[in-house]
């Protein structure tokens, strides 16, 4: 089996690893991991049966595919550390570093033959219901692209995307789970206002959101057409929708997307 390495062991790296382990797509013994603080990744590696290594260089030396899962501020130093080993080993680098382009990574590595794939997953990959954007550099072979695509498809769905659209994906696919959690919690709090327990209200709201999302994915109608289908003339749903619009619901969502994109693009 191909060895897969992770440089960085934060929440998103762990979400991906946990998703693979849950499906059995990747064996724990085939995953190498290293980050700046042994006290952080060591216990996690032991708990999951992963292979902890002592340096970023060791990750590259032992893995065919290396995920860069570090903060943008430290990416430069990490690339400088592994530069020679990447060129020698010819590992495929998969960057999940927000706001850093393939061209910027390539410039630091200084070798046009390095195979690079940029991805942007969301946290739901941990339960195999995520969505991940993919963009490869010209050097990345079709074989390696499709291998990585297959790996990531086990975590939900993938979508090829131009790099210029990654910031938009961050808002619609990456940050949006938090927006949805916020929406569900708000619905649940309204349920509590009218006498339900928080647990009961949360379960009702979450199930309704999950079913509605699945309905959109399988229906031939647009989301707005589905809104109309639920909205009986003079009914309760229309009253609720009008109240939401009066409070600026749609505008608040657009502003959330605007703010997320602006933050992602700010260097």
UniProtKB/TrEMBL annotation:
Pfam families: F420_oxidored (PF03807), P5CR_dimer (PF14748). The keyword NADP applies. One of its GO terms (cellular component) is cytoplasm. NADPH binds at residue 56. Keywords: Amino-acid biosynthesis, Cytoplasm, NADP, Oxidoreductase, Proline biosynthesis. Its main location: cytoplasm. It comes from the Bacteria. Pathway: Amino-acid biosynthesis; L-proline biosynthesis; L-proline from L-glutamate 5-semialdehyde: step 1/1. It is found in: Cytoplasm. InterPro entries: 6-PGluconate_DH-like_C_sf, NAD(P)-bd_dom_sf, P5C_Rdtase_cat_N, P5CR-like_CS, P5CR_dimer, Pyrroline-COOH_reductase. One of its GO terms (molecular function) is pyrroline-5-carboxylate reductase activity. Residues 163-265 form the Pyrroline-5-carboxylate reductase dimerisation domain. It catalyses: L-proline + NADP(+) = (S)-1-pyrroline-5-carboxylate + NADPH + 2 H(+); L-proline + NAD(+) = (S)-1-pyrroline-5-carboxylate + NADH + 2 H(+). Catalyzes the reduction of 1-pyrroline-5-carboxylate (PCA) to L-proline. HAMAP family: P5C_reductase (MF_01925). This is Pyrroline-5-carboxylate reductase. It comes from Liquorilactobacillus capillatus DSM 19910. The lineage of its organism: Bacteria, Bacillati, Bacillota, Bacilli, Lactobacillales.
């Amino acid at each position: 089996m191909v060895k897969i390495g992770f440089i960085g062991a934060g929440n998103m790296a762990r979400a991906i690893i946990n998703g693979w382990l849950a499906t059995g797509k990747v064996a724990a013994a085939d995953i190498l991991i290293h980050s700046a603080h042994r006290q952080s990744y060591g216990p996690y590696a032991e708990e999951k049966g992963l292979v902890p290594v002592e340096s970023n260089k060791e990750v590259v030396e032992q893995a065919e595919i290396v995920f860069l899962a570090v903060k943008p501020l430290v990416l430069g130093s990490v690339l400088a550390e592994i530069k020679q080993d990447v060129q020698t080993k010819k590992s495929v680098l998969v960057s999940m570093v927000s706001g850093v382009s393939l061209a910027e990574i390539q410039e630091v590595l200084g070798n046009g033959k390095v195979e690079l794939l940029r991805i942007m997953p969301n946290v739901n990959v941990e339960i195999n219901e995520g969505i991940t954007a993919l963009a490869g550099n010209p050097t990345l072979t079709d074989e390696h692209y499709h291998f990585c695509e297959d790996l990531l498809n086990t975590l939900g769905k993938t979508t090829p995307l131009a790099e210029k659209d990654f910031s938009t994906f961050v808002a619609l696919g990456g940050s949006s789970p938090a927006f949805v959690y916020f929406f569900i919690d708000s619905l649940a709090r309204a349920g509590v206002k009218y006498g339900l327990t928080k647990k009961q209200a949360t379960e009702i709201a979450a199930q309704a959101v999950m079913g509605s999302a699945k309905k959109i994915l399988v229906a031939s109608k647009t989301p707005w057409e589905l809104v109309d289908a639920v909205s009986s003339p003079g009914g309760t749903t229309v009253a609720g929708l009008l109240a939401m619009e009066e409070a600026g619901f749609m505008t608040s969502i657009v502003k959330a997307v605007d703010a997320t994109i602006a933050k992602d693009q700010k260097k």
